[in-house]
Amino acid sequence: MDLVIDIGNTLKKVAVFSERGKLIRLFQEKRLRVEFLESLFDEYTICRAIVSSVGDEEAEALAWIEARVRLVRFTHRCRLPIELDYATPETLGTDRIANAVGAHALYPRHNVLSIMAGTCLVADFVNADGEYSGGSISPGLRMRFQALQHYTARLPLVEPEEIVPLIGDTTQKSILAGVVLGMAYEIDGLIADYKESFSPLKVIFSGGDSDLLRNFIKKRIFAAPNPILLGLHKILELNASED
């Protein structure tokens, strides 16, 4: 079996894939502990692994894995099933590359816009020929709430809620409406612009805040729980046999 690790800004996602590419088990950890890995290796026969990191790397845990199986440390220099048509690939987050690979794997031979709503709102575009040209990055939901509280003297810190009014009749509800609906409008506008330029277009939506935001997005989107993990597994398949 294969081990896929995505070290993000907030959580460490650890997934076990079958050799045929099926997601068997998914864990979300705040820390990548050796004790956790030991139990994982006891339960599953792990033969190879890949790690992508945009946060602080867990050096001890990764060294433990590398001492036992082939570990691919993913960078933009790894072999990819898509072509990077990006001006500065060395600055491109590995999570964005994996997201694009996962989107292309889900919808090969289609124009695909993959939107992730997490710490940041990230959009990545892959055309029908498998060429990744980039996308966009803007603040995520909680970052927007935090910014309003941090950069003003009196506005409170508001938490996301599932019920959002169109018209906020309190300061808290006004912030809730402005942030959640504003982000939904941004996503709808982004999808509309891409569809105008790249039709027909598949749109997939993922990330920790996708379930909440999906209720307010008017454009047609497809739920894709783990495009990054899927993409990392595809990259592992291409690179695990290399020295």
Any overview of this molecule?
This protein is 35% helix and 26% strand. With 243 residues, the protein is of the alpha/beta class. It has a 6-stranded mixed sheet, sandwiched between helices. Helix 4 crosses helix 5. The longest helix has 27 residues, at 171-197. The chain is globular and about 60 Å long. The mean pLDDT is 91.
Topology diagram in text:
Elements: E1 2-7, E2 12-17, E3 23-29, H1 34-43, E4 48-53, H2 59-66, E5 70-73, E6 83-84, H3 94-106, E7 111-117, E8 120-126, E9 131-139, H4 141-150, H5 171-197, E10 201-206, H6 210-214, E11 222-223, H7 227-239
Parallel strand pairs: 1-4, 4-5, 6-9, 7-10, 10-11
Antiparallel strand pairs: 1-2, 2-3, 7-8, 8-9
Helix pairs in contact: 3-7, 4-5
Short description:
This protein is an alpha/beta fold. It contains 7 helices and 11 strands.
